[in-house]
Amino acid sequence: MPLADALSFFPGLATTAAKPAEDAAALRRLAEWCGRYSPWTAPDGADGIRIDITGSAHLWGGEKPLAADLLARIERQHIAGRIAIADTLGAAWAMARFAEVGQNLAILPQDCRAALAPLPVEALRLDPTTTQGLRRVGLKQVGDLFAMPRDALARRFGEMVARRLDQALDDLPEPLSPVGETPARRVRLSFAEPITDPADLLRATERLVADLVPRMAREGMGARRLDLAFHRIDGWVERIQLGTARPSRDPRHLTRLFKERLDTVDPGLGVEDMILAVFVVEPLPAEQIDMAGHSANPHPTPPPRAGEGMGGGISPLLDRLGNKLGLAAVSRLEPRESHIPERASVRVPVDRPHSPLRSAPDKPPRPIRLFDPPDPIEAFWLLPDDPPFHFTWRRRRHRVMQADGPERIAEEWWRPEGSSAAEAIRDYYRVEDEEGRCFWLFRAGLYSGDHKPRWFIHGVFS
Predict the structure, then answer these.
(1) 136 and 38 co-located in one domain
(2) How far apart are the first and last CA of the chain?
(3) Do residues 228 and 350 both lie within one domain?
(4) Is there a domain that residue 177 lies in?
(5) Domain count across the chain
(6) Which residues constitute the domain of residue 268?
(7) Suppose 273 and one of 9, 36, 79, 389 were both cysteines; which one would form an S-S bond, judging by CB atoms 3.0 to 4.6 Å apart?
(8) 321: domain CATH number?
């Protein structure tokens, strides 16, 4: 009723402005908190939560103990709720909202027709216009629709009535889209009393990692992306999310990564559950090691990866840097099929899989470090194809003692950024000055009477 009419009946009525956005955010947080019972959770409209407990109810001793635990925990958060458990989302939705008053828990049998029959047609999640049309023709309860032909219902009231009825009776599937990504593997640890001490959180993290690693080892898999969730008693969920540059199942390494982020977790009044979930896994075969802890095969195939045995190479360091800076901020050089030096490699994130690359023919030596862009120099030479006998770079003169070249590299004219002009042709020389330093020089363009080519230094040999 309008607020003015309500105040006339109850002058002392306390009112507050509705905040739908904040209510939706709170419902989403509650749905994430319900992830302690199942990873398949999602908000349901503006006032409900859907949870798929298939395969997880036995962890709580059955469906009834699970529902009782959920009711007790949300009541401690001063949230009133009603729970219905059924084989279909439609039947559970109907019983949770239209069951008898005072019935906070309803568990339906596999054949839910008898339980749904006395409920009003609004229990089928239909819009008000459709429910009014059904009531006008005498179809007031769900049971009145059981004997109706589906074609007749569709012609008179649209396809939604038959669809909702079939979904409630499990004659038509209805998928559940979880609020977050579904993990590939997860382990959970519950506490008799909420914990807040960082040392306790670290010990719990070690137990979860120790429980997860043997499972991945049996499957020959390694973790690439993990999520450690801290379910607080006030309904909030704190998370630590991290990734690894290579698949890993080394418990010490994974625990160290989480330990470095534990100071970002606010336990609030206490953490009652911790869940470690793995969202991305990749194959990680076992590696044979000798008694000294080194790989028994000096040339293993495939190469050893982080987190297996005593090996790992530089990957643990990359994981720690990525844990602090983000894996996207840590990059590596990856070769590309191009004979243009500055295009022969690109920077990619360290967690990106290696791209297959066909073997390229042998090329003359290249410097490890290239200048981007190449530095211009002033060079002096005698004949058109001769290397310079001395050059000036950064106001310092270098006398050339030895030289090798030229190596002609033309522009990739078939690419959009390529050019077929004579100025795009480069003649590279490897030169050594009187102090023994080696440089990689190139002449841009061809020599002609009216055109003088330019010289650049592209890199320095170590």
Answers:
(1) yes
(2) 84
(3) yes
(4) no
(5) 3
(6) 183-290+301-354
(7) 36
(8) 3.30.1490.100
Separation CA 102–CA 96 (nearest Å):
11
Structure tokens at 354: 């290696």
Helix (H) / strand (E) containing 166: helix 159-168
Asked if residues 411 and 420 have their Cβ atoms less than 8 Å apart, the reply is yes
Q: Are 112 and 88 in contact (CB under 8 A)?
A: yes
- The reply to whether 362 falls in a domain is no
Whether residues 212 and 245 share a domain: the answer is yes
Q: Which among 425, 436, 424, 444 is positioned nearest to 379, based on CA atoms? A: 444
Given a contact cutoff of 8 angstroms between Cβ atoms, the answer to whether 274 and 205 are in contact is yes
Indicate yes or no: pTM above 0.70.
no
Cite the DSSP H helix spans in 302-341. 315-325
Quick one: 337 and 189 in the same domain? yes
| Same domain? 26 vs 140 | yes
Half-sphere exposure of 314 (CA within 13 A, CB side): 8
For strands 83-85 and 105-107, give the pairing. Answer: parallel
CA distances from 187 to 56, 57, 230 (A): 12, 15, 12
Q: With b meaning 16 or more CB within 10 Å and e meaning fewer, what string describes 335-351? A: eeeeebbeebeeeeebb
| Amino acid making up residue 299 | H
Place of tokens 């243009």: 340
Domain-embedded: residue 273: yes
| Residue where a domain stops, chosen among 106, 135, 168 | 168
Single out the residue of 426, 430, 420, 435 nearest to residue 455, CA to CA: 426
10-residue mean pLDDT profile of the chain (462 residues): values are 90 90 92 90 91 89 92 89 92 90 81 90 92 91 89 86 91 86 89 93 95 91 92 91 87 92 92 93 73 46 38 69 74 78 78 63 79 90 86 92 88 71 84 92 79 88 84
DSSP letter (8 states) at residue 300: -
